[in-house]
Write a structure and sequence with these properties.
There is one protein chain. This protein is 18% helix and 35% strand. It is built from six helices and 26 strands. It is rod-shaped and about 160 Å long. The protein starts with 35 loop residues before the first helix and ends with a strand.
């Protein structure tokens, strides 16, 4: 805005038009050669208004008023619009409109327009003061009520056309790390009142909850070790509209530093040499969830005549029951020779500790392990010709799964009520069931020989 465009004090009438012109002589006659633009500026300044007020009172955009006062006629709309703007502005400034249009045509090098007939303005009756009557008051109240109804309807339409808001307030950041022993976390946030919030996580069922009347919501989610990804979305159940963007949350549960379990083997001692193959394995473990025992054949024992044929197969890892205090106890049956016994304790995350024990088995006499399988069976045993006190003279009935061990110098004789349920191992070598039928039978057992029927 130029210096001439700054506001000046208004005339006594306080409005645009002729009444705003300050007291004094009528607008001067322009000297020869004066630009039309300068004449417009002088008339506006004499009227005491700025361009902003002139724009408001003439309804002509300020940029066009300024263009006319600069003489920038090319910035006006073409044709009749420019002529109308100039005519109305001249009348507003109290200038003769026809003379102004003629001067404008001369500046543009055009033929002067035909003078228009000017109709005298009717005299305006003096305005009466504002009178508030009953009818006007009622009309005002009705208008206010109508506006309130329209505003309410507009607000409802706007509300129903907008998607619901959504925010997660806890956790406060998108990526959060919690303590390593954390199992659950309570998510909290806000949305539209009674809005439906959905929480999705890979590998888990979707969680759907309704927000409270104030829009707040919360729910507990399960956490696993590592990163837990959650996607939170919200919908307005009345309109079906969903929040513009879901909120993604990552909650990390760090992995604990797990130490390998400790393991102690109290039996057998490393390098142990025994005269029978029933080797007790005992020990204890801490921070372990499982203990297994395995054994592998190494070679012939000192003084052993020759290696057995076929070579004894390895004993695969066998689970051992752990007591509440971490102790364990079991036994392995080994044939004659040198063996390596392996004990392994396994803890969390697959961490394990392993100990090995070298054992030599050199049988002296005969050692028999008798096992009952499938169903209960009557048994009677003689060791070197003498009835074993474990069975007695009348024999004993053993239930399925029961195991007894007998040792002698030369022979062991077994009498069973059911051959097919009676299994024997001689000096660490398993010979299976004593027979294929459930008939009774008597068998003579000697070192290095298969069970032979006898009586």
């Amino acid at each position: 805005m130029t210096t001439r465009e700054h506001a000046r004090p208004l005339g006594p009438a306080g409005r645009g038009g002729e009444g705003d012109r300050p007291p004094g002589p009528e607008p001067r006659t322009p000297p020869p050669g004066e630009r039309l633009a300068d004449r417009l500026v002088a008339a506006r300044e004499a009227k005491g208004v700025d361009l902003l007020r002139a724009e408001r009172e003439t309804k002509i955009r300020r940029q066009y008023l300024a263009a006319m006062e600069r003489g920038s006629w090319s910035e006006l709309p073409a044709g009749v619009y420019a002529r109308g703007f100039l005519r109305n502005y001249a009348i507003y400034l109290g200038l003769p409109a026809d003379e102004i249009l003629a001067a404008w045509s001369r500046e543009l090098g055009e033929a002067p327009p035909v003078p228009a007939i000017v109709v005298p303005r009717p005299l305006e009756a003096p305005r009466r003061g504002f009178v508030l009557g009953p009818g006007l008051a009622v009309a005002g109240l009705v208008t206010l009520a109508a506006l309130a109804i329209v505003a309410y309807i507009g607000f409802q339409l706007l509300r129903f056309s907008e998607p619901p808001p959504l925010a997660v307030t806890d956790p406060a950041v998108a990526v959060t790390e919690v303590a390593e022993d954390t199992k659950t976390y309570t998510l909290r946030g806000t949305t539209i009142a009674d809005g439906e919030v959905t929480i999705r996580a890979p590998g888990q069922a979707d969680i759907r909850i309704l927000a409270a009347g104030d829009g707040t919501w919360r729910t507990a989610v399960d956490l696993r070790r590592g990163e837990n990804h959650f996607v939170v979305s919200a919908a307005d159940p009345r309109t079906g509209k969903e929040a513009l963007e879901p909120v993604e949350i990552v909650i990390t549960v760090p992995y604990a530093q797990v130490a390998a379990p400790t393991l102690e083997v109290s039996s057998p001692e490393n390098g142990l040499s025994v005269e029978n193959g029933a080797i007790p394995v005992r020990g204890s473990a801490t921070d372990a969830t499982a203990v297994t025992v395995a054994a592998s054949y190494v070679g012939v024992a000192p003084g052993q005549a020759a290696a057995p044929s076929p070579v004894p197969s390895p004993i695969p890892p066998t689970a051992v029951e752990l007591a509440a205090d971490g102790t364990f106890s079991t036994a392995v049956d080994l044939t004659e020779g040198r063996w390596s016994i392996t004990v392994t304790a396994t803890g969390d995350q697959g961490k394990s500790t392993t100990l090995t024990r070298a054992v030599t088995v050199v049988y002296q006499g005969i050692s028999v392990v008798l096992e009952i399988r499938q169903e209960r069976t009557w048994i009677k045993v003689w060791v070197d010709g003498v009835v074993s006190p474990d069975t007695g003279a009348g024999g004993i009935v053993l239930s399925a799964g029961k195991t007894l061990t007998f040792r002698g110098a030369k022979t062991i004789e077994i009498r069973t009520g059911k051959m097919s349920t009676t299994f024997v191992t001689i000096n660490g070598t398993s010979f299976g069931a004593l027979g294929t039928t459930a008939n009774p039978g008597t068998f003579r057992l000697e070192p290095g020989k298969a069970p032979a029927p006898g009586g």
